[in-house]
Specification:
- The chain has a domain of 38 residues: YefM-like fold.
- By secondary structure, it is an alpha+beta fold.
- Strand 2 and strand 3 form a beta hairpin.
- It has a 3-stranded mixed beta sheet.
- The longest helix has 11 residues.
């Protein structure tokens, strides 16, 4: 890792950052010979797929493929409501 004084970093900040981006070599910034900061290359952000993002968040309880209710109680197409038996 390359060390650079804070005064020199202040004067050449953009060039130092560009050099870190190009080479991937980190730079340590020092003040009075003591390290105060490090410039490291950024890690590439990985695109996260939304598929499976809710895994473990829900629980299926009961029958999920069976009928929801009794079909004979539905009044589909009838003008008068059918009384329950």
């Amino acid at each position: 890792m390359k060390d650079i004084a804070s005064s020199k970093f202040k004067a050449t900040c953009l060039a130092v950052i560009e050099n870190v981006r190009k080479t991937g070599e980190p730079v340590r910034i020092t003040r009075f010979g003591k390290p105060v900061a490090e410039i490291v290359p950024a890690t590439p952000k990985q695109a996260k797929s939304w598929i499976g993002s809710m895994q473990g968040q829900m629980e299926v309880v009961g029958d999920i493929v069976g009928p929801v209710g009794a079909f004979e109680l539905w009044n589909a197409g009838e003008t008068q409501p059918q009384s329950r038996r």
